[in-house]
């Protein structure tokens, strides 16, 4: 038994010796924590067409937002400006869309042609003209600063009551020169055409504003919607008119070269028919008749067969529309048109065509002797 106790003592000594001589363990490095995931933040904006998801808190309305880049702060130049929310029933307010921009421009005396709610060359030209008048950068873009100068002070739409007199005006338009000369008037062919001109609008926009309306079945007492279009009251006559052939625009200025009005216009198809230089107004005639001269229409087989002049009665579908401003050069003038939605997109035999409502407004700004400058 003594040998057993001796063996236990030896093993205990060996264990103690190993404990004191073992290498010291280094503490383990802590395991890295999982990265924190940012939760997407969705701003509570209810008047946006689509949801916007960002990973930072939203900017304060109306403040400039500096986009995140990898460049130094001094190199960040592309500021994005957020527009304030718009209460559509409170005026004055900013225009919300292209149609309301076109309407606000018209109320400021700057026409984009037949309002259609679509950005095109005529709308961009109108925006540029307004920006130059307001001494803003003429970008042709309705940015926040431009819209802030284009405040809407009244609702953009109005109700129009169809009357028995409206219906009595409607008549089909003859397809021949002789037939037109035999009509009592060259008036509107449809209620859609009548309402579109009263609203300074493209017929397609009028249809969009009145979904479900059967235009051929309307009777007296029907109510339809149209743009509440108007021009500012005139406060005197223009000192001169300026026609830009390349831009297809006509502008009226006062004696201090302040812009009074801006309109799209059609110009002559043939270069030799474009009278570059200085002209003067010789005659001003509202609601004119039209003298058809077959020599002016060599491309018309009917005109050549007739071989004589005809007098066409007044009306919005008269070849010169509802206004004639004759220039001191035979055969040249500024006038309206039976197809206002084509102004600036088609060309004439030599005169300058405006939408009927623009020609009527221009009549109030000119007088016999007003200077007309035509530039390339």
Order of helices and strands: HEEHHHEHHHHEEEEEEHEEEEHE
Chain-averaged pLDDT: 83
Content of β-strand: 15-25%
Largest sheet: 8 strands, mixed
- Rg (CA only): 37 Å
CATH arch. level architecture of the domain at 240-287 and 322-375: Beta Barrel
Strand tally is 14
CATH class of the domain at 240-287 and 322-375: Mainly Beta
List the helices and strands and how they pair.
Layout: H1 2-21, E1 64-65, E2 80-81, H2 98-107, H3 121-133, H4 144-149, E3 157-161, H5 164-169, H6 177-181, H7 191-198, H8 203-209, E4 223-227, E5 240-244, E6 249-253, E7 259-264, E8 277-286, E9 290-292, H9 301-306, E10 310-312, E11 323-327, E12 333-335, E13 352-353, H10 356-365, E14 371-375
Parallel strand pairs: 5-14, 12-13
Antiparallel strand pairs: 1-2, 3-4, 5-6, 6-7, 8-11, 8-14, 9-10, 11-12
Helix pairs in contact: 7-8
Which descriptors would you attach to this protein?
14 strands, alpha+beta, 8-stranded mixed sheet, two-stranded antiparallel ribbon, single chain, L,D-transpeptidase catalytic domain-like, 376 residues, globular
Explain how this protein is built.
- The protein is of the alpha+beta class and about 375 residues long.
- Among the domains are: about 100-150, no CATH class; about 160-225, no CATH class; about 240-285 and about 320-375, L,D-transpeptidase catalytic domain-like, CATH 2.40.440.10.
- It has ten helices and 14 strands.
- The strands form four sheets. It has an eight-stranded mixed β-sheet, sandwiched between helices.
- α7 crosses α8 (about 205-210).
- The chain is globular.
- The model is unreliable at about 1-5, about 15-20 and about 25-80 (pLDDT under 50).
